[in-house]
Amino acid sequence: MPVIPPRKEPGTPSFSQLAARSGEDLEGTIGKLWLNRIGIVAILLGVSYFLKYAFDNGWIGPGGRVAIGLIAGIAVVLWSERFRSKGSIPFSYSLKAVGIGILYLSLWAASQRYHLVPSSVAFVAMIVVTASTITLALTQNAEILAVYAMIGGFSTPALVSTGENHEIVLFTYVCLLDLAILAMVTIKPWRRIVWGAFLGTAIMYVGWAAEFYDDTERPQTVLFASIFFAIFAVIPLITPLSRSRWHSGFSITLMALPLVNAGAYFLALFAMYHSETATLTWYSLALAAVYLVLSSQFKRRVGSDPDVVKTINLIHIAIAIVFITIAIPLKLNEHWITIGWLIESAVLLWVAVKSDAHFLRIFAGCTLALGICRLLFYDNFDTQTLIFNARFATYLVAIAIMAGIVSAGKRFASEAEMPFVNAAGVALNLLALWAVTLEANDYFNRQIMAFYRTHNYTVTDQWQIAKDFTFSAIWIVYGAALMVVGFWKRSAFIRWQALVLMAATIVKVFLYDSRELEQVYRILSFIGLGVVLMGMSYAYHRDWLKLSPRKSGAAEQGTTA
What we know:
Structural class: mainly alpha
Strand content: under 5%
Oligomer: single chain
Radius of gyration: 36 Å
């Protein structure tokens, strides 16, 4: 039977045509793009070798070298416009990058290598180059040119540095550069230059502080750090909050920048006031007030995406609450730090649920883990009263937050997040059980120490036995209560927790209590455990939750008979 070839739709290219077209595209890319770039590099290398040869032989002096560099840089920038007018825009921007780089290097050589002009003159000339590049970026709507301007602008102080401390001049220049970039981002949605400006400012600040900072310069340093903070704090407020302008969805830049900016500013303050906690407390409260004011301003935004406005508003509220919680441990100490972290995690979770910002849930989980770990392994409490003490109160805060996570998780958590909600439920019960056990342990230890000081060792041993029995009693009662809640809520998850706890209690009673406790406590321990287990067994026997599979009618009649 002859093989009938598959029918090809009209206009559908064949495999050979597709292969040929792919080859043509690759060939065009190599010919138009890569050969062009390699050619430029080859020409630049050839010219540089020629200039080096001329320099080495004394044909061209220092002044001539700088003049050649300036003329060549300007010529390359002007030459690039010819390619832009013909549609070769990426190639044109590549040439501009080369020309701008030549200008910066030529001015650096004139000042630092050949000392033809003072550093101040080269500094001003580099500012002119940066301003010209910014103008080109705006007029040609080219973000890449704005990036070149930003890199050149932040490189200028390093290129003309004399190794001396000129804090006011340096930071005034950085402020002006940041303001210029701020003006650009109000017009153009250029995220990269926002982060580039932030990183450049941080590098300038940290580099200067590591070399020159001392306490005598703290007032002006705080002033400049505050100005830097203010510039980046207002970017989300004055930027068009439209999804189409900054991001295809929620802008990560506008949501993350307030968090990073606040953290960097507070770290700078902490480095200057680390031994003055009272001053840091007032700064924390002031920052909280600033972010509350900023959050209120977002409600007045007109013509912006309401979801984006709501998200950024909630983020600013969360930052304000974080600074309030920081102010508490700064003013106080010890367990208040733990409480602050726990409350912060609750606030971040609330904001994450309200704004549907998943990255905040990660921060909240990390903060919650820090608070719990500090509570369990770091905080050292000296309790003198039963229940009414700082440790039990701190545990109650942690338990309440876990309960809130479980309650909110039933309504808002997705299926993928339910394991974390269930883990919070387990943590709730473990924390509650551990808190009560610690209270009993400390109570009996206080009694034991009181009699130990009087050398009444017989009574001391009796208190030790009573303590061991109390632990079993607490676990039995808690397990029974947990089982009741499991039946009431019809929750197999809670009932399984009760069964696991009862299993641990059974092991303790049979392996430890049966050998170590006195006869009376041993009797009470076994009877109490037996009564609770029989009660659980009865509940399951009556099948109040209809856990047993339904039997067929015939089987039921046979069983009845």
